[in-house]
């Protein structure tokens, strides 16, 4: 077993480029229970763009909007709509992370740079991954500030309660036809990840939709990136629909973990978050399929929560509808009860639910 050349402590933050960060921040606070904690914008001397950093337990989401015409952020929004630009990874040595990955073939996004303020310094570096998405390495061991240099603490009188979201469980990338293995190899060779599980279109297909998927994980297992590729089906696959509307590869969903999915989903629904609808027949033979579970079936059925089991235990999960106008990015809410997998047993029921939505959009 060789040593991990890219040790990662966890996800540092997810940054989305959006058309209107102020209103998007309001949505993440109101609907998902994130709390304002850091800000940069005109008032802090940031004249080109404005960013709101929001937090819920270990999850940090940054929403960034340009303040002027032209430039990289506007181009990103024009091409992709609102979407994830940066998946930032928390490391102890951002310079070494950049050196080790670029030497193995990663395309540099940001050469190691030191940013200082009164609270110390942060070293940042970055590499490109699929589509226009990037990984930024954040070394913050010499920094005591609220978030990152350039940000100031943001206080708001409007703080809807958190809904129990704890940490990012996994983040899924959709890549174009024939590209899955290229990106699997990228995570293996360039970032030292290994493959956890794979399933192909024979495993996951409905009458119409099909996909192939491989799950890549880093050395300590804290980072899990499933990579999806469309597969041939009778009609257009949901992955292909994503690629069409996002204009290429990108982050498809962010799975966030909770310790109490029933309470979390109740809260989210009460706050207007829309979830994929699974027919109640899903629950008819559920216990035959997954065996005994600790939860009452009734609230699970009422809320449409899905259950799957693997050799290590079971998991409960539920998927939102896309949270943007283009049928691109969505969230998954997941509670693990031992299971280490990703809900393969639910994919068929889930895809059929997505197809009903695609049919309404005329994109099936
Ligand atoms: Fe997922």
Structure write-up:
It is a single chain. 48% of the residues are buried. The protein folds into two domains: 144 residues, 2,3-Dihydroxybiphenyl 1,2-Dioxygenase, domain 1 (Roll), CATH 3.10.180.10; 197 residues, Roll (2,3-Dihydroxybiphenyl 1,2-Dioxygenase, domain 1). By secondary structure, it is of the alpha+beta class. It is globular and about 60 Å long. The protein has nine helices and 17 strands. The protein has a nine-stranded mixed β-sheet with strand order 6-7-8-5-1-4-3-2-9. The model has no long low-confidence stretch (mean pLDDT 93). Helices cover 24% and strands 34% of the residues. Strand 12 and strand 13 form a beta hairpin. Bound molecules: fe (ii) ion. Fe (ii) ion (FE2) binds next to strand 10 and strand 14.
Short recap of the structure:
The chain is an alpha+beta fold and 364 residues long. The protein is built from nine helices and 17 strands.
Entry keywords:
alpha+beta; 2,3-Dihydroxybiphenyl 1,2-Dioxygenase, domain 1; 2 domains; 9-stranded mixed β-sheet; 8-stranded mixed β-sheet; binds fe (ii) ion
Q: Which topology of the largest domain does CATH recognise?
A: 2,3-Dihydroxybiphenyl 1,2-Dioxygenase, domain 1
User: What gyration radius follows from the Cα positions, in whole Å?
Assistant: 20 Å
Trace the largest sheet across and list its strands: 6-7-8-5-1-4-3-2-9
Helical content band: 10-25%
User: How confident is the prediction overall: mean pLDDT?
Assistant: 93
How many domains in all? 2
Helix/strand class: alpha+beta
